[in-house]
Write a structure and sequence with these properties.
seven-stranded antiparallel beta sheet; 2 domains; Rossmann fold; 24 strands
């Protein structure tokens, strides 16, 4: 299904995976990408390193548009096209670069003076425009419209004589959010930007080492979580690891930046079964729900039971936290499944007539009338972007005849664009921006009995087990941790 028919969610960025020292590297990468499918559904790819009959390294690649199961539907791909004992993979949702341009599908590979190089990137480089212009003026020829290609050019054009040094030099020049898996003839390298906007972890699968955006990719392989890649760290995995048992690590630069993890990873993006930023996502989501109930409870006006439902699937555990806290406050309530979400929507579907936007919500969701009819219903959701889908969803629930509908949002109003890997619509399309943050006007637009968001401070209170100072809240506050080019538009690179 075309995701644009459900515009009320921030669009995911990407997911990266890497493995070193496995006889089934491509197959393990396939499973890892499958677990990370929620981070990008437009396209995916895998690169492996194998040795040919002349004992030379060969990089093999297979990529395409679609879900992991679609692009790698033929099992012969893994043996015939993707041999080798090390690999990197990527799930894509375009944040920069045209989503229609096949060349933008990662990983990217090049062969240059020091050998082969493959890169998979999660995040967004905020100074990509100026770096690209500089490289073009020096004679570089770009093959894609993705900011990730800037990294390849910076590495390949370096005059240093060691690949690790070249990579460090390149990373010192780029700004913004990046988690990288890099494959060379001799190494698997993982790197995370100094602010640590996006999650990245290292695991071990028997004798092989794995790297992934989220630890749920380890679970599917029964790999053991080792540790997170630290902000500003380069992890280097090569043959020496099998002798020493330890991975090598270097700092990208000598300075230490304040950590600014994307709080939306806890609110929406990451799977609840993942461990990121030092904590379990499920636990943090439940805490968000508890704070939401503590600050903004709902009671039935007639003293009857309150029904708490989520907008599946990202809000499921948040709704459980909300209902648990209501009970602690003495408010009689019950968690229920009031919305059924279809999990069988393909990437495209036929939308007859002029009602395609209206039918979009009905294709994705169905109501459970017996749960909602005559009840005071609290809908717990993680965010509202444009507001159009939320309004359609409210109208759908009204068809069940509830007594009242109350909407509770476990994030703050989204007022500003993100430059670190989330793809929101334009500032003018954000409903909170359109109404200047006036929650009462948003409530009237959605036609609910009440609407409450968490404030920024309340969100940070919910994640207080982590250091609340370590989170980026730029899309809510407009306070960006890094220098940004506010004139940048991804469309300028689309071909």
């Amino acid at each position: 299904m075309n995701k644009n028919y459900f515009p009320d969610k921030p669009k995911c960025h990407c997911g990266v995976f890497g493995i070193y020292g496995s006889l089934n590297a491509s197959l393990h990468t396939y499973y890892g990408l499958h677990a990370l499918q929620h981070r990008g559904q437009e396209a995916c790819g895998i690169v492996t390193k194998s040795i040919n009959e002349k004992d030379h390294s060969v990089f093999n690649i297979h990529k395409g548009e679609g879900l992991v199961s679609e692009v790698f539907a033929d099992s012969k791909i893994f043996k015939k096209e993707l041999p080798g004992n090390s690999a990197i993979g990527h799930n894509r949702y375009s944040t920069t670069g045209s989503s229609q341009l096949r060349k933008n599908i990662q990983p990217f590979i090049v062969n240059y003076r020091l050998g082969n190089l493959g890169v998979a990137h999660n995040g967004n480089i905020t100074n990509a425009k100026e770096l690209r212009e500089e490289l073009v003026n020096e004679g570089a020829i770009f093959q894609t419209t993705s900011d990730t290609e800037v990294i390849l050019h910076l590495i390949a054009r370096s005059k240093l004589y060691n690949q690790i040094d070249q990579i460090k030099e390149a990373l010192c020049r780029i700004e913004g959010a990046y988690c990288l898996t890099i494959l060379t003839d001799n190494h698997l390298i993982a790197a995370r930007d100094p602010y640590g906007f996006r999650p990245l972890s290292v695991g071990k699968l028997n004798n092989a080492f794995v790297v992934a955006s989220e630890t749920c990719a380890f679970d599917i392989l029964q790999a053991k979580f080792v540790r997170e890649v630290e902000p500003g760290e380069i992890v280097i995995i090569d043959e020496e690891v099998f002798e020493t048992g330890e991975i090598k690590s270097q700092r990208i630069n000598g300075t230490t930046s304040p950590q600014k993890h994307c709080i939306f990873e806890y609110i929406y993006f990451s799977r609840p079964d993942s461990f990121i930023f030092g904590h379990n996502v499920d636990k943090m989501r439940r805490r968000l729900g508890k704070i939401l109930a503590r600050k903004y409870p709902v009671a039935d006006k007639d003293g009857e039971k309150v029904i708490v439902i989520s907008v599946p699937d990202s809000s499921n555990t948040t709704a459980l936290g909300y209902q648990t806290e209501l009970e602690k406050q003495g408010i009689v309530s019950k968690p229920e499944i009031g919305l059924i979400r279809s999990h069988y929507i393909g990437r495209t579907f036929i939308q007859p007539g002029q009602e395609k936007r209206e039918i979009g919500v009905r294709i994705k969701f169905n109501i459970v009338r017996g749960v909602l009819e005559g009840r005071t219903v609290v809908i717990v959701d993680d965010s509202i972007v444009r507001g159009t889908t939320s309004k359609q969803l409210i109208n759908l629930i009204k068809e069940a005849g509830p007594k009242e509908i109350h909407l509770r949002i476990s994030s703050s109003p989204i007022m500003h664009p993100c430059f670190y890997g989330m793809d929101f619509p334009s500032r003018e399309e954000l409903i909170a921006n359109r109404y200047n943050g006036d929650i009462q006007k948003i409530k009237e637009y959605l036609e609910v009995d009440s609407l409450e968001y968490l404030t920024i401070d309340e969100m940070l209170e919910a994640v207080s087990e982590a250091d609340p100072e370590n989170f980026c809240t730029a899309c809510f506050s407009g306070n960006y941790p890094t220098r940004i080019d506010t004139t940048f538009k991804k469309e300028i690179y689309e071909l």
